[in-house]
Design brief:
3% of the residues lie in helices and 43% in strands. By secondary structure, it is mostly beta strands. The protein is globular.
Length: 314
């Protein structure tokens, strides 16, 4: 089976990006061009474009209507039980529905592509697995050595839609140098959520040595699969950077205030680091703890929200 694959080219720099529309609208390649020197930004498993690799393990998986794990494979919403597929090896549902399904390309040019997925249009059985229909419209655009993305989430149903969104980028290390361990990663957070068995307890504590995290941690000293909160914004943007000191290359990720948590994950292969903006704490659908704001969004019929993420290499 051939999976639809879209390649974008920036006409001024020659930077390119590849999006696997037929497998989660996953942008699995972004190669910047710095005066003739190519910088490969995203890590993907060999053969990912075939659609045979794990959907959540390469490129930029898009996580909706729930990012991260849910507790177990069932949850209750407004008196009804919903059953999901367990997918994390621990018996928990994980990362939503859209990351491994085919999206429709609804607009395309040389440097821009728009894709869409709607449950009632593209996979009817999802209407039995979630409290309401949903529609996601994603846009990727190359502007020089900047990859801009926006995502619009709509509730086309006559019922309330509980939801959260996360992106799960695998940033390749190093960025042109020879040592991934010497790269520096900034984590713009002031708090950390407590996890037990990879699920939130509802406790959020001040992050020890937050300034060091914000100034940058050496990747060789990092081993994370953690959820951070209390993000530090400058105006409308929160910024995380990865710097390769040997090649003097900087990758900057900016994201807007629709996000309020940051998951940081260091894959066992150590060829990448995941710095993942989430709109909510993972594991929160169906989890009701009085006095705890997990950030779950509940879109009423006709409501929507928009998220923006930009990656820039310099």
């Amino acid at each position: 089976m051939t999976i639809e694959n879209v390649t974008l080219i920036d006409p001024t720099t020659g930077a390119r990006a590849s999006i696997l529309a037929g497998f989660g609208f996953n942008c699995y390649e972004f190669v910047a061009n710095l005066n003739g020197r190519e910088v490969d930004v995203l890590w993907s498993a060999p053969g990912f474009a075939s659609g045979d690799e794990r959907a959540s393990g390469s490129g930029i998986p898009l996580l909706f209507p729930f990012p991260g794990r849910l507790r177990g494979s069932t949850f209750q919403w407004e008196g009804r039980d919903y059953s999901l597929e367990a997918g994390d090896g621990r018996g928990n549902a994980i990362h939503g529905f859209v990351l491994n399904r085919s999206w429709r390309v609804i607009e395309q040019s040389a440097s821009r592509v728009v894709g869409q997925f709607q449950a009632s249009v593209d996979d009817l059985k999802l209407l039995d697995q979630w409290p309401a229909d949903f529609c996601v419209t994603g846009t990727y655009e190359l502007i020089g050595n900047r990859l801009a993305s926006t995502f619009v989430f709509e509730n086309p149903d006559d019922k309330a839609l509980p939801c959260g969104f996360g992106t799960h980028p695998y940033f390749r290390l190093p960025l042109g140098g020879t040592s991934n361990e010497s790269c520096v990663v900034t984590i713009p957070a002031t708090k950390q959520w407590e996890l037990v068995d990879m699920l939130p307890t509802g406790k959020c504590k001040e992050l020890a040595e937050a300034k060091a995290y914000q100034q940058g941690l050496r990747f060789g000293d990092m081993k994370f699969d953690d959820v951070f909160g209390g993000l530090v914004f400058d105006g409308d943007d929160c910024v995380s950077e990865i710097v390769d000191p040997e090649s003097n290359t900087r990758l900057t990720m900016r994201f807007d205030r629709s996000f309020r948590e940051l998951v940081v994950y260091t894959p066992p292969h150590r060829g990448a680091v995941c710095v993942e903006p989430y709109s909510c704490v993972p594991g929160t659908v169906g989890l009701d703890l009085p006095g705890v704001d997990f950030g779950l969004r509940i879109l009423q019929p006709g409501e929507s929200f928009t998220s923006r993420v930009e990656l820039e290499v310099g």
